[in-house]
Amino acid sequence: MTHYHHDVRLIVAMVTALSSLVSAGALSDDCDKYFNRYTTGVSGVFSSPNFPNSYSSLLRCTYHFDPSANGGVEIKFDSFDLEDKKEGDKTCRYDYIDVFAIDSAGLRQRLNRFCGDVIPQTIISPLSKLEIKFVSDHWFNNGRGFNGTYRFLGQDYQPFDHKPSACGNGHLSGVAGFIYSPNYPNSYPPSVNCSWIINVPENKSVLVRVEDLDIEMEPGTTTCVYNSALRLYNGYVSDFTLATLDWCGNLSDYLAPDLEHVTSTNRTLIRFVADSKKKGQGVHNSHRGFKLMWMAVTVDEECPDFRCKGGRYCSGGGLCKPLNRYCIPKQLVCDGVYNCGPYDHSDEQGCTWEIMIMAACIAVPSLLFVMIVILVAVLYKNRTVYKSASQEQPLANSNSQGTTSRESFSSNHRQMMVHTSFIDGTGAMSFDPDNDPNNDITDIDQETTHGLFSPSSSNGYTSSLRTHKKRPSYHMMQQSYEDSTMVVAQI
Q1: Residue ranges of the CUB domain (predicted)?
Q2: What percent of the chain has pLDDT over 70?
């Protein structure tokens, strides 16, 4: 019983001492620190409680960094000494700091956790605000804690090299635009280092869509060779920040959804690097680079601007997925660009220019058809007039050429002229039925005479005339009687 009461008193004493320690630590250390561009300056220092001496146990300290709207935060540690991880511990469960990025809506995103005595690399918040939370457990520790510097970054902060003469303007803002590789659509230089910063209005995200791509890639793989790639970074970054996305090769190497990305912030950085060199020797480049479109969008359910209709995208394998229904600015509707995407043209449907193009597509062929009809009618009329006039022209008479001139005959003479062209070249022959001993011409072929006259006893013709079909190798002449005149024409 005595031992039992002794143990109880010991436990109570330990709990009381621990509570006193916690209260003392909480009261003695002011752990919440606030840093703002306007109150504490563009840059400054921060440190753990009691630095450079050992920090206390059971600490919960928070450091708030607010660069104001459209800004970033850069954190550099000069000294770092916390309790290290124990064997088998992979998450720094004892003493540590957590680094959070906070967006304009107050949503927190943990970037990393640090412990031990290794100085962390420079931290840059991808969002507008940054928060550091320092936690120590109940065990005493002789670690000195940490100290560092902060710097608020402006919209024009550029962590990479950029040459405007080769790459163009490196700071882009507004609601939409395009970015091209140097010399596009011609080949880009063998060595390129360009970066473009994109800022869109607050509470918007940046939609980036690759519309053309031709960058070196290892054949048969998806590896970008010679450090050549188009890279996307989310928010504010440093020179050691890993890219969110890399693109190289051609458009055909990617599915359509993989060629666009929506950032979680209103700021993004696009970087294009190319180093086509092998063993110090320049390599001829025949790749044209890229064309990229960027745009301010929102993905919220409420859309005060224009909501894209979306739809479905189906790959070659038959797999289909819904397209994003972006909310895009109203000024991008009917601007001649398919801002909703290559498979969603809802922002350009029913526009004036589209109606004009459709009207032109209908009107132009119709006008051409009418012109062709008019032209054919005119040509046909001219040909008819020409043919009628040619029939009235006199035929020239030339015995040397085997032609017969137009002659006038009296109906009472019963005289007929037949012109025959023989193969043996004997020329023309005049034929008079009154002088021919074989003057029976009643056997004239009905197809030849075409009903011009019929043999009978009244007109003096008999049926003993040989037909033209009995004469070899000649051309018959067509005769017609018209007003007691015979018209002779060569067939």
Answers
A1: 31-153, 167-297
A2: 66
